[in-house]
Amino acid sequence: MQELMAYLQDPELVARFQRRCGLYLVEGSNPGPGRSRSANGAPIAQEKPRGQLQGSWDRQDSNSNYEYKDCKKPQYELVMYVGQVMKDLLKLPRPPSPPVVKLETRVDAEYGLPSTHAMAATAISFTLLLSAPSRVQFCFQTGLLIAATLSSLVSLSRLYTGMHSVLDVVCGILITAVLILLTYPFWESFDSFQLTSPLSPIIALSLLLFLSYTYPELDHYTTTRGDTTTILGACAGCSVGYWANVQLGDTFEPRGPLPVPLPTVTALSVARGAGRSLVGVVALVGTRQIVKKLSLDALYSWYNAPKTDKNARRRKEIEVPSKFVTYTAVGLVNSILVNRVFALIGLL
Question: For 161-184, how does the pLDDT look when each residue is reduced to its tens digit (9 = 90+)?
Fold first, then answer.
């Protein structure tokens, strides 16, 4: 088993996959040391090793890997939290360069195992696949093929970008599969509690805020705590929003007995879908920008931190409440307000 794990963690496996895709690490003066070339010959800058990254993380929000996910099901939240925490507890490094070509710089200070991108893709694809038959009529075999394809493409992309070893990706998929199998029998019960219990909003907000504050501490700053708080905040907001919709008697359910047939794709349905996407993006991005600014201003003032200090937002007492409040607001707007706007302007 140790030999297999060592083999799967070998960075040369990732490098060979990248070369198969036409991505090569080029040493020498032409492209410059520590640089690489893509298949079309364009040089690609390489990042510095862990602990030597420089510059500001001020724009981490706009580059967040996990923004605006619809988190009605608890599996995504559970999977992502487990994956993020495991990274910072196991502390296994990402594949080194050389031999791997690294195409991302933002997350190099984070650890590698498991791949949370692989976990998220697997969780979202297969949770949707397993949940859909009770609501929508479709060919399960086709859905299985689509779910496997999408999760595989995301997993392979993590090898292509050089951000994870094969072991990271495989472990991410296996951990997600185990979590789905363990929680699947309780999905309906959890949904019923989440949507109808008067304790649901209290537990959602308090538990997820508690998990954000108790995230494992590291000896250096990474974006994992912030990304995890983003996920938990969005989930808290969506959970409270879905509960509120049920209390208001407006859950935007499909009309007719379930499962309903898949709607026919027409020019009008495509136009309405594009309109919903546009309105949703404007509403959620606008909410994030407004609440983010207000929460940061309030926290900077409370802790007497100068607004010119860009590193102040890395402090736990500022980063966690700011992100949690911001993305809770995003989740609330997503689950309560946006659908009502869709109905009001005829996009449903």
Answer: 999 999 999 999 999 999 999 999
